[in-house]
Design goal:
heterodimer, B: alpha/beta
């Protein structure tokens, strides 16, 4: 708990300062509403925001699972052959360095014409793919070389080597990748929703856009707060999982 | 390559290994008799670990022949090299399970092997819960659980304190003497006292030529009687071997030391 106290105090100080500044300087609420107004908006729109947060979370989660299956599966396949890895890795890097926003319109056309949610999931999965692929691939190749030799000495089959040595070695790397991917999946989902931008999806990004178009700044900040909290919770959940697995493994 | 040869646990005939960026190893001739303990000393980079990997069949020679009896081989590395996610029992059972032995029987034998190295009460300990000496004993149990004909040890005690090291050497002699037929042991070390105490025969590898520079037969018989470390013949052999080793080392100016 003592670890939580300093950031909470800092947050409280920022909020109080913000509130006082808004009142003293008489900042117009459409420009910057005080935290009290944001809190009021949060409460007033709680059911809508909760439903939207649920939608965004669900899309991000689907994307994460999809990315884990595809990224992990491809890493596993590629780890069995060095030429395959050399062929695939640059393409994976290329996917990673391409800005999400730039590929969003394409994904919209390919996957989202009849179902905007599907496009959001696809795009978020594309963004979350790389850390999972890279984490699993790195992990699978990180086994102690002497342990690898031991498996050689005792004539282990490729399957035995994978299950008894490489997968357990890869697990912490996989979870590290999952933590990064979880954050990216939310970013990808929000970006995709922004680009689709038509209300066909009902996630938090749409709430943000909708409020922005009407200059309801307090509502925007309320949606933003929800996104932030969701990101923190997701990060904490994966962090907990990671720690639990590490304890079991080491 | 794995051609059987009666009268030897393993042998190298005119073996060479070429490396990129350093002088080649060999040509090397070395015969390990069944039940014999051979220590190998030499400067870092003289190729001691490579010889072990050749004898284990983990690395092919660039030229020459490696004769292996085709029997079982055990290997202990410089560090314990245990799987951190598995307990001592699972680590020791690994070679048997990889060979397809049923889990229950493998675990049973692993428990026996751990008891033989005095770790019968730590079967379910994870590697991080074990001291360095205990972890090394787990590694030794894992190497012995298959009842190997040839046991290869690559500086296994280098990272341990001298008391633990001496205790492990006694353990190794005891385990070796208890087994019929006795396994051949090839042991790599930096320490001339350890080499002569542990082995029947000590081979000095020359770092510059990559060949056997000298061979010394240890006085006395194995296992050593207590107090043998003070034996005059042993002390004299240690001095002679230290001189051999110094000659086989690169000159100080070359190593920058």
């Amino acid at each position: 708990m003592t670890r939580l106290l300093p950031p909470l105090l800092l947050t409280a100080a920022i909020l109080v300062g913000w509130e006082i500044a808004c009142r003293l300087l008489q900042v117009p609420p459409w420009f910057l509403p005080p935290p009290s107004a944001v809190a009021a908006a949060l409460i007033a729109r709680a059911p809508l925001l909760a439903a939207s947060a649920g939608a965004t979370f669900w899309m991000a989660l689907q994307a994460l699972i999809l990315a884990a299956v595809l990224g992990g599966g491809l890493a596993l396949a590629v780890s069995l052959s060095r030429p395959a890895e050399q062929a695939v890795r640059p393409l994976a890097v290329a996917l990673q360095v391409t800005p999400v926003v730039a590929i969003a319109p394409l994904v919209m056309i390919w996957a989202g014409l009849d179902n905007a949610d599907r496009a959001v999931v696809a795009l978020a999965a594309a963004v979350a793919f790389f850390p999972l692929f890279s984490g699993v691939l790195t992990g699978l190749k990180s086994a102690d070389p002497d342990l690898e030799r031991l498996f050689d000495l005792y004539g282990a089959t490729p399957v035995q080597r994978l299950i008894r040595l490489r997968l357990p070695t890869a697990l912490p790397f996989m979870l590290e990748g999952l933590r990064v991917a979880a954050g990216l999946a939310v970013i990808g989902a929000v970006v995709a929703e922004f680009v689709s931008g038509s209300g066909a999806t009902q996630g938090l990004a749409w709430r943000l856009l909708e409020a922005g178009n009407r200059l309801r700044t307090a509502d925007m900040l309320a949606a933003l707060t929800c996104l932030m909290i969701m990101g923190l919770l997701l990060n904490a959940a994966v962090g907990l999982l990671e720690r639990a697995v590490r304890r079991r493994l080491a | 390559m794995a051609e059987a040869r009666t009268g030897a646990a393993a042998s190298l005939d005119g073996v060479r290994v070429h490396y990129t960026g350093r002088p080649p190893l060999g040509p090397l001739d070395l015969t390990i008799a069944p039940g014999e303990i051979v220590a190998m000393v030499g400067a870092s980079g003289a190729g001691k670990s490579t010889v072990l990997r050749l004898l284990a069949g983990l690395e092919p020679p660039s030229a020459g022949t490696v004769h292996l009896t085709g029997g079982r081989t055990g290997f202990v590395f410089q560090s314990a090299t245990l799987m951190p996610w598995a307990d001592a029992l699972a680590n020791v059972a690994l070679p048997l399970e990889l060979a397809g032995m049923a889990r229950a029987e493998a675990r049973d034998r692993a428990a026996g092997a751990l008891t033989a190295v005095a770790l019968g009460d730590r079967l379910n300990a994870r590697p991080r819960q074990l001291s360095g000496g205990m972890a090394m004993r787990v590694a030794l149990a894992r190497a012995l659980v298959t009842e190997p004909d040839l046991l290869l040890l690559d500086e296994p005690f280098a990272a341990l304190d001298s008391v633990t090291r001496r205790r492990l050497i006694e353990d190794l002699h005891r385990l070796w003497a208890a087994r019929r037929p006795r396994p051949a042991i090839v042991f790599v070390t930096h320490d001339v006292e350890e080499a002569l105490y542990l082995a029947d025969r000590v081979v000095v590898l020359d770092a510059a030529t990559g060949r056997v520079a000298a061979t010394r037969v240890s006085p006395g018989s194995l296992p050593r009687p207590s107090g043998w470390r003070a034996d005059a013949g042993y002390r004299a052999a240690v001095e002679a071997l230290a001189a051999d080793l110094a000659e086989a080392m690169p000159a100080l100016s070359e190593t920058g030391g």
